[in-house]
Write a sequence for this structure.
């Protein structure tokens, strides 16, 4: 009676108590599990040698041309202009101990670079604290724009070193005067770029803010700041470059510890090789600052993808 009751055609072929059920069904399940999924391999792109050499050869050719011209000048110089090899040997001696200190006027190149960067950071930081809010205010309110635009147009073209005597007179010290010079020269790019960014915010955004009756703080934080951020970072990048240029000239006149003073001191000692080394150090540090700020600006800049 038990073997006559079935629920499906498959069960009608094999009794419930038959061992053939295990021997037939189990291998089918095992076979289903044992079949591996096909592995998809991504084809490797062939190396584009032309693109690689186009990225490598032009910079090498440029540096090679520089060394060639440098060597020709040194060979034809009657004043003992150092050759690239002599300068390289001197650079090894300079960078062997960049942080030595034998008094306030005799310190390694590392301490001089750090002192210059500290002055740049202070002057630039003060300029950012003043310039960025001022740029938002000038771009936001037409009255302030008409009020300050003539002053900015008048003061911005003034040479950086023209502000140094004013700083020496007011602050009675070389270090505050150098920071003041950096401040007054690096504030203009941040003010101008921030104001331009605010003025270029689409009018639709501001109309929506009026419809929603947003407060001025909400407009600043939710609408203006995200839209103006790329312009603001561009102004910051230009300001840092200006500050690094100004500090070298300011330190050459004010003295103390700094890369500009180091250049002037080596000139007084007629050590031209160290002056050339300082030029390369100034260029490398400026390039590093520029590269870092470009990366930051790229991270916060969103471009529209075109189909």
């Amino acid at each position: 009676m038990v073997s006559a009751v079935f629920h499906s055609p498959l069960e009608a072929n094999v009794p419930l108590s038959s061992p053939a059920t295990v021997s037939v069904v189990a291998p089918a399940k095992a076979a289903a599990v044992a079949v591996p999924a096909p592995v998809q391999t991504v084809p490797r792109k062939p190396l584009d040698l032309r693109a690689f050499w186009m990225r490598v050869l032009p910079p090498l050719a440029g540096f090679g041309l520089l060394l060639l011209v440098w060597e020709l000048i040194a060979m034809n110089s009657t004043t003992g202009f150092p050759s690239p090899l002599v300068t390289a040997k001197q650079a090894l001696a300079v960078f062997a101990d960049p942080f030595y200190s034998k008094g306030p006027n005799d310190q390694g190149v590392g301490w001089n670079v750090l002192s210059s960067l500290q002055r740049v950071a202070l002057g630039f930081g003060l300029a950012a604290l003043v310039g960025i809010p001022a740029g938002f205010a000038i771009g936001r309110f037409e009255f302030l724009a008409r009020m300050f635009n003539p002053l900015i147009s008048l003061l911005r073209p003034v040479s950086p070193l023209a502000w140094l005597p004013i700083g020496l007179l007011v602050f009675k010290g070389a270090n505050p005067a150098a920071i003041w010079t950096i401040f007054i020269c690096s504030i203009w790019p941040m003010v101008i770029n921030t104001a331009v960014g605010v003025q270029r915010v689409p009018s639709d955004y501001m109309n929506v803010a009026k419809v929603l009756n947003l407060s001025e703080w909400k407009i600043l934080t939710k609408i203006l700041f995200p839209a103006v951020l790329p312009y603001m970072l561009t102004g910051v990048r230009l300001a840092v470059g200006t500050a690094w240029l100004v500090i070298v000239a300011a330190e050459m006149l004010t003295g103390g510890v700094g890369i500009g003073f180091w250049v002037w001191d080596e000139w007084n000692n007629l050590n031209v090789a160290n002056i050339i080394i300082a030029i390369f150090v100034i260029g490398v540090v400026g390039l590093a600052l520029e590269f870092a700020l470009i990366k930051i600006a790229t991270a916060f800049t969103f471009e529209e993808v075109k189909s």
Observations:
- The radius of gyration is 35 Å.
